[in-house]
Write a structure and sequence with these properties.
Elements: H1 2-11, E1 38-45, E2 53-54, H2 73-77, E3 83-84, E4 95-105, H3 107-118, E5 121-127, E6 130-135, E7 137-141, E8 147-152, E9 154-162, E10 165-173, E11 178-180, E12 187-199, H4 209-212, H5 216-219, H6 221-258, H7 286-311, H8 322-333, H9 335-348, H10 354-363, H11 366-382, H12 391-418, H13 445-460, H14 464-471, H15 480-507, H16 514-522, H17 524-538, H18 544-582
Parallel strand pairs: 9-12
Antiparallel strand pairs: 1-2, 1-3, 1-5, 4-12, 5-6, 7-8, 8-11, 9-10
Helix pairs in contact: 6-15, 7-8, 7-9, 7-10, 7-15, 7-18, 8-12, 9-10, 9-12, 11-18, 13-15, 13-16, 13-17, 15-16, 15-18, 16-18, 17-18
């Protein structure tokens, strides 16, 4: 089954198959007494979800037969390291106080467990592809400021079955079986476990609903409804403002121009009308702008595709990295969009360095992400964390890029170069650029970016917490329908705000709107990055490993959001500028 998953990743047959989680029992059907696959996964502090370590790095009982599960690429990206467990949970066989092993813990091992208990370490297992968690111990305080540390030495499994299927499993600790780790000394520990099977009427197809209940959507429906309503009325307000602008201001200007016989002399006219000879002058660093537009268009396609796949029900809670693999594959495929968009737009701007432009489009986001990954993977390797990706799996990712992403990027660039489309400018540019009059401080780039980013961020910031909690916590985000609605709202509001600010810029006779519209559209990404600091300090994350992972990957994510929304803002502004200047005839 794992080999089939690997073959799928290489051949890219159907993304829907990604939703199937690999299992030793393909149909999940068992007879009484049959062994059911149980794997231990990883151990780590509850507050630092990226800081995880192999289960057997701690002196737990080893299995009778050591067997490492062959992992798919998704499991590797998710930091999973599945190894056979020492517990025997045969189908419908109860056990009472079964001895797993007896261990003589050295002082070093006691200190290791004591540190783990003090930092609220948890362990994770998978039983018939159902995830289970349990803290490894508990710290108790006395009346004075002293702590006593206890290790759970007995676990109890409550397993529910229906006919020949496992439906649910719960793992709990026996508070009467504790090992005192407070003193730094050698101790003897006996690890025990018990199993109790119970029949249930729940069908097999609904067994994952338990994990969906821990997601954010069902528990916060009112909050989602409030945020959606707030976003909807914000869009209505913005649309109303733009309609009023168009009807009361622009229409008046259009009518004046139709009745004006001295248009060519530009006498007595101010505002956006007088800069018609400069507004379509190609911007500086047009190669970088075209590459940013191409990369932003690709990221737009990636986000939209992942959301659509999620809405279609392909992703399931705790599916061990399926979302990450789907994102990698979709990003590789959409490189053709980046290449085509960047090169075709660059040629419309009469650019002559297509190879440089194509390289920038392919590396503008992927380059910083790869460098960040290399640094964080080195950090994980130093800490010996399961977050470290082995060289073999890195080679697999590079092969996906070399044999899929890179050829598609080149294909898109070739198609873009073959497209002989011209830039559609409704009026000619003059030979000499017009001098921009002095502007007030609030019309500068930074204040405009602050205004442009605040409104879109204020609309969807409510949805940021569940997204962050699912990425940097143990909740699973399953409300893809709600996320789709918010993504549409975010894109719409960004486009409307960019159009409004572009008009104000042109009305001030500032014709350098190209980069400004891109920066204002993408400024929401800066607000999200500022929110990262708020979320980090509100959480209990700590340590260099977790901090570097959080800010490293969130920096890349916010940069990607900046490129995506910057592209939306530029495209909307370009359509608007073309429309208003094509509505007037120039000589």
């Amino acid at each position: 089954m794992a080999n089939s998953a690997e073959c799928f990743l290489r051949t890219l047959v159907v993304i829907g198959i990604l939703s199937q989680v690999t299992s030793d029992a393909f149909d999940h059907k068992y007879n009484k007494g049959d062994p059911v696959p149980l794997y231990v996964n990883k151990v780590g502090p509850y507050c630092n979800p990226s800081e995880t370590y192999p289960y057997y790095d701690f002196p737990f009982c080893p299995p009778d037969l050591w067997q490492e599960k062959e992992e798919s690429l998704g499991e590797v990206l998710n930091g999973d390291r599945l190894v056979s467990a020492p517990y025997k949970l045969n189908f419908r066989l109860d056990r009472e106080s079964q001895v797993v092993c007896r261990r003589n813990l050295t002082r070093k091992e006691v200190a290791l467990f004591q540190t783990a208990v003090a930092k609220d370490y948890y362990l994770q297992m998978y039983y018939d592809d159902l995830p289970i968690w349990q803290f490894i111990g508990v710290a108790q305080t006395n009346n004075v400021d002293t702590f006593k540390y206890y290790l759970f030495t007995k676990v109890h499994f409550d397993i529910f079955y229906s006919r020949d299927h496992v439906i649910e499993i719960n793992m709990s600790s026996d508070s009467s079986n504790l090992a005192d780790l407070t003193e730094d000394k050698v101790i003897d520990i006996e690890f025990l476990y018990s199993v109790n099977w119970k029949e249930t009427d729940l069908p097999f197809d609904t067994r994952m609903q338990k994990y969906t209940m821990f997601a954010h959507f069902p528990l916060n429906m009112k909050k989602h409804q409030f945020a959606i309503t707030n976003s909807f009325w914000t869009i209505i307000l913005l649309v109303g403002c733009l309609v009023a602008l168009y009807v009361r201001v622009l229409r008046k200007d259009f009518n004046e121009y139709e009745n004006d016989e001295e248009l060519a002399d530009n006498q007595g006219h101010t505002g956006w009308k007088i800069i018609h000879g400069d507004v379509f002058r190609y911007p500086k660093y047009k190669c970088c702008l075209a590459a940013a537009i191409g990369c932003g268009t690709q990221l737009f396609a990636v986000v939209l595709s992942v959301i659509i796949v999620g809405v279609a029900g392909v992703f399931h809670p705790y599916d061990r990295g399926v979302q990450k693999v789907a994102s990698v594959i979709i990003y590789a495929i959409t490189n053709v969009i980046a290449g085509f968009t960047a090169v075709s737009f660059y040629h419309q701007l009469e650019g002559s360095y297509s190879a440089k432009n194509l390289f920038l489009a392919g590396s503008l986001f992927c380059g910083p992400l790869f460098l960040t990954f290399c640094f964080l993977n080195t950090v994980a390797g130093i800490y010996e964390s399961t977050a470290e990706i082995s060289m073999g799996n890195i080679v697999k990712i590079l092969l996906i890029w070399v044999f899929i992403a890179l050829p598609l990027l080149l294909l898109g660039g070739t198609l873009g170069k073959m497209t002989k489309s011209e830039f559609q400018a409704p009026c000619r540019s003059t030979k000499c650029p017009r001098e921009i009059p002095p502007l007030r401080w609030y019309r500068a780039a930074l204040p405009q970016m602050a205004i442009a980013g605040f409104l879109p961020f204020s609309v969807f910031y409510i949805e940021l917490y569940p997204i962050f909690a699912s990425i940097w916590g143990f909740k699973e985000f399953t409300a893809y329908g709600v996320l789709c609605v918010f993504f549409i709202f975010l894109v719409t509001i960004t486009a409307l705000v960019s159009i409004g600010l572009t008009y104000l810029q042109l009305a001030a006779e500032d014709h350098q709107w190209w980069w400004r519209s891109f920066l204002c559209g993408g400024s929401t990404g800066l607000y999200v990055y500022a929110y990262c600091f708020f979320f980090y300090f509100q959480s209990e994350m700590s340590g260099f490993l977790q901090t570097s992972f959080f800010f490293g990957y969130m920096t890349c994510s916010c940069f990607g959001l900046f490129l995506l929304l910057g592209t939306v803002g530029f495209r909307a502004s370009l359509i608007f500028v073309r429309h208003i200047y094509s509505s007037i005839k120039f000589e």
